[in-house]
Write a structure and sequence with these properties.
Layout (H helix, E strand, L loop, with lengths): L2 H9 L3 H6 L1 H25 L1 E6 L6 H14 L4 E6 L8 H18 L3 E5 L1 H11 L7 E7 L12 E6 L3 H11 L5 E7 L2 H16 L3 E7 L2 H10 L5 E4 L10 H11 L3 E4 L10 E5 L1 H16 L10 E2 L3 E6 H4 L8 H6 L1 E3 L4
Parallel strand pairs: 1-2, 1-3, 3-4, 4-5, 5-11, 6-7, 6-8, 8-9, 9-10, 12-13
Antiparallel strand pairs: 10-12
Helix pairs in contact: 1-3, 4-11, 5-6, 9-10
Length: 343
C-alpha cells in the first residue's frame, strides 16, 4: 500500500508528458499493473475460508475431500482446517463438545465461508447453530439425502454423497445370473446404517434378500466375512470405525477364505473385494471449494443448487478374482481399473 501516493503523484503529470517521453509511459503502465496485482492479491488472501472435516486425517475419504478443497483454494484465500475426529470418537458428549469447539472458532475467527464435510459437521454444527445465519456454508459428503437436516437454508448449499448402488447391482447381474441372498458388512457407525438403508431399498427392487452385519472389531469382521461366503454376494461397507483394523492380516484372511462375489463402493475396501464402483472424494472437495469461491465473489448460497456427485471409478481386484471360480465379463474387464496384478 506504500506505493499508492507515489503512483498517484507519478500519474498526475498529464498526457503531454506521455507523448514527449514514451519510455516514461511504459514505466508508469508497469507500475499501475504491479499495483493492481498487489491490491487484488491482498483482497483475495484477505478472505477467510474455514474447512471443517467431520473425521480425521489418515481416513482415505477425508483425505480425498481435503485434497480437493486445497487443490482449488490454496492461494485463493486464507484457509484453516479443523478436524472433528468423530469417526474414532463416537460418544455423543465428545461430538457435542467438538461441535462447540468449531462454533467457538467460527465466532472468533469470523470466516467469510465455511466448508463442512460429511454428516456430523452438518448435524452438530450447522443445524443447531447456524441455520439461516449470515455465515455462508457449503457442505459436502452428506450421505444420500439432506432431508433430515432440513437443507437448504438461505445460507447453505452443497453436494450430496450418493453411491452408485443401482449401477453396482446392474453390473453384478452380468457376473452372477442368480442372486438371492446378499450380506452387507460394515462398521457399526451412523454412516454405515445410512448406507445399508439405501442398499436395502434398492435390493428390494431387485427382489434380493439383504442382511446387515455391523461390527466393532476386526475379529468380528473376519468371522462375519467367513460366514457370509455361503451367500450369493457380499457387500463391503466401510471399515472406518473399527479401531483395531489390521489391513495386512485382513488381506491374508480374505484371500484364504473368499469364495463368493465380494463387492464394494469404497475405494479403500478394494483390497478385500473383487469388484467395486467407488465414489471419488476429491470431487466433493473440489465442488465445495469452487462453490465457496463463487460465494466469495458475491453469489448467495441459495443461488447454488444442491447437487449429487456425478463421478465414479470401477475396479477389479485380479489377485482375489483368480482364487475364486468367478468369471468376469470382458466388458467389465475393459472398463475397470485393474488392481492386484502384482500379486
Amino acid at each position: 500500500m506504500w506505493l499508492l501516493p507515489w503512483i498517484c503523484n507519478a500519474l498526475s503529470c498529464g498526457w503531454r508528458k506521455f507523448i514527449l517521453f514514451p519510455g516514461v509511459v511504459e514505466m508508469r503502465v508497469a507500475i499501475v499493473l504491479l499495483f493492481s496485482i498487489l491490491v487484488f492479491s491482498d483482497a483475495a488472501l484477505a478472505a477467510r475460508c474455514l474447512f471443517v472435516s467431520s473425521y480425521h486425517r489418515g481416513y482415505a475419504w477425508s483425505d480425498g475431500v481435503e485434497r480437493g478443497v486445497r487443490k482449488v483454494l490454496d492461494g485463493k484465500c486464507e484457509l484453516r482446517q479443523l478436524d472433528m475426529d468423530t469417526k474414532r470418537n463416537k460418544s455423543e458428549e465428545y461430538i457435542r463438545n467438538k461441535a462447540l469447539e468449531v462454533k467457538h472458532l467460527i465466532d472468533s475467527w469470523k470466516p467469510d465461508v465455511v466448508i463442512a464435510a460429511d454428516d456430523n459437521a452438518a448435524k452438530y454444527v450447522i443445524v443447531p447453530y447456524y441455520r439461516d445465519s449470515n455465515i455462508p456454508f457449503v457442505f459436502c459428503g452428506i450421505n444420500w439425502s439432506v432431508d433430515e437436516y432440513g437443507f437448504p437454508y438461505k445460507n447453505v448449499t452443497g453436494m450430496v454423497e450418493v453411491a452408485p448402488v443401482r449401477q453396482l447391482f446392474e453390473n453384478i447381474e452380468t457376473i452372477r445370473t442368480k442372486i438371492h441372498r446378499i450380506v452387507y458388512i460394515g462398521a457399526d457407525t451412523l454412516t454405515e446404517k445410512k448406507n445399508f438403508a439405501r442398499f436395502n431399498k434398492v435390493a428390494d427392487k431387485y427382489n434380493y434378500q439383504i442382511r446387515k452385519e455391523l461390527v466393532s472389531s476386526t475379529a468380528e469382521w473376519l468371522a462375519v466375512f467367513k460366514n457370509a461366503q455361503s451367500s450369493d454376494v457380499v457387500v463391503l461397507g466401510s471399515n472406518s470405525g473399527i479401531p483395531d483394523w489390521d489391513a495386512e492380516s485382513v488381506k491374508r484372511y480374505v484371500k484364504t477364505h473368499i469364495k463368493t462375489l465380494v463387492i464394494t463402493n469404497h475405494e479403500w475396501m478394494m483390497p478385500y473385494a473383487i469388484f467395486g464402483m467407488t465414489k471419488i472424494p476429491d470431487e466433493q472437495g473440489e465442488w465445495a471449494a469452487l462453490s465457496a469461491l463463487k460465494i466469495l465473489e458475491g453469489l448467495k448460497p441459495s443461488a447454488i443448487a444442491i447437487v449429487p456427485n456425478r463421478k465414479w471409478d470401477m475396479y477389479i481386484n485380479k489377485s482375489l478374482l483368480k482364487v475364486t471360480t468367478i468369471t468376469m465379463p470382458e466388458t467389465l474387464l475393459l472398463k475397470s481399473k485393474l488392481i492386484g496384478n502384482e500379486e
